Amino acid sequence: MMYALCDCNNFFVSCERLFRPELEHRPVVVLSGNDGCVVARSEEAKQIGIKMGEPFFQIQDVAKKHDVVAFSSNFYLYGDLSNRVMRLLAQHTPLLEQYSIDEAFLQVDHIPIEQLKNYFEQVVRTIRQWVGIPVSIGIAPTKTLAKVASKYAKRYPAYHGVCLMDDDTKRAKALETFPIKDVWGIGRRMNKRLEGEGIKTAWQFAQTSSLLVKRWLHKPGWMTWQELNGIDCVDIANRVEHQTISKTRTFQTAVSDRTMLEKVWVDFMVHCADKLRQQSSVCNQFVFFAHTSRFQNDMQVLHQVVTLPVATDITTELVTNLLQVVRAQWRSYPYKRAGVVLTSIMPKHGVQQSLFDERSRERDQRLQQVMDAIHQHHGAPVLQLGAQILPSDIPKITKQEHRSPRYTTHINEILTLKVE
Q1: What is the mean pLDDT of the chain?
Q2: Are residues 282 and 318 in the same domain?
Q3: Of 69, 127, 138, 329, which is most buried by a Cβ count within 10 Å?
């Protein structure tokens, strides 16, 4: 088995530069909600010392000195360009597993090994020409090794965007200098344990006795060790990626209107339900919350756990339960932050039905499948519930002083050219 991992280079920055080509080779950053922290950086921004997650207000002097261009997050644009990249990639594989907005795994056994590098170099060129997004592709016998290879493809221009790791010699050479903390699947706690044992590189870890690895680490660490040694054992499609799924937001100005906050909660629930279905899971419980500013002495909190009679992934069912409890528990305060968290997540095939369930679940499933199919066809959520927040409401609660136009999804913000 051979896998290719396609990773869009500095994706959010690349999306912004696509419509602002004059920003090439200039330091660019993309900010989180309310323009709070840096969530994406160009290579030039990294070189001047801007760190991921830094509060933007703390780097104002650096930004001014180096003429850094900052953008508010524009997820309408990023999501649409991501869909375009994924649709192109899907043409080159019998199975595409999208891992994140800017990454996807491809099975590539249908292509002879000796042709893989040239074939995917052409794919890299095609994506750059047709979509405008630079990508790097790593190819290897396991997904973890493919992730390592993609890092080298991105790091060294001589690879022309594609790094092929197809034998043990290449694997050893790549892992010898690859930090263990950067290996996919190695979290902070696991890295701390391994460094305590003197293991600092992926190669040192791969050469460690399997008995020691099993003694030191739990199953995820053992699977990573196997993957680094060329044993394919990570199945993204059939595992629950997240034990909780959440969506939260800090508001630019406090929100005390129940109708507006309901729209926010519903919008969050729609987002979380989409994530739930993407990983073929259902949830049996969710939490919604809101609280006033943490900096006031009498901080008020609205927090409620909702248990469902039957685990579900149906958006309308989750929203209905949410609104019923919100309206029963509502207390009006100037809320500064709100969120929704799905918990008790389990595989969809393991749902236990209720004898007294009166809901028409077959009808709900058919309706949900139709809506999901429409969204997938258009590459964007073109339908929405009446209770969801409108795009025109977002500026009222979220600070986005540096947002670029939604060039590809909103007709009023389409790119215009002036010809003289």
Answers
A1: 89
A2: yes
A3: 138
Full residue range of the structural domain in which residue 194 is found: 167-237
Asked whether residue 397 is domain-assigned, the answer is: no
Dihedral in degrees, nearest 10, Cα atoms 171, 40, 59, 36: -130
Task: For residues 356-372, give the mean pLDDT.
Answer: 81
| 153 and 10 part of one domain | yes
Cα 389–chain centre separation: 22
> Could you tell me the two tokens for 111?
């292509």
CA 27 remoteness from chain centre: 23
Query: Is 115 in the same domain as 173?
Result: no
Please say whether the beta carbons of 62 and 76 come within 8 A.
no
Q: Yes or no: say if 136 and 150 are a contact pair by the CB < 8 Å rule.
A: yes
Q: Are 127 and 135 in contact (CB under 8 A)?
A: yes
Which tokens sit at 271? 């987002």
Length of the chain equals 420
pLDDT tens string 210-232: 899 888 888 888 999 999 999 99
H and E: helices and strands count for the chain:
15, 12
Helix (H) or strand (E) segment spanning residue 347 = strand 335-347
Determine, yes or no, domain membership for 395.
no
Query: In this structure, which amino acid lies at residue 128?
Result: R
Strand pairing class (28-31; 69-72): parallel
Q: State if pTM tops 0.70.
A: yes
What whole-number distance in Å separates Cα of residue 30 and Cα of residue 186? Answer: 26
Domain membership flag for residue 118: yes
Closest by CA position to 385, among listed 289, 339, 338, 320: 320
Tokens of 254: 């406090």
Residues 6+ apart with CB under 8 A from 259: none
Residue type at 325? V
172 and 161 within one domain: no
Instruction: Report if residue 409 sits inside a domain.
Output: no
Are the C-beta atoms of 44 and 16 separated by less than 8 Å?
no
- Contact criterion met (CB below 8 Å) for 251 and 336: yes
CB 407 within 8 A of CB 414: yes
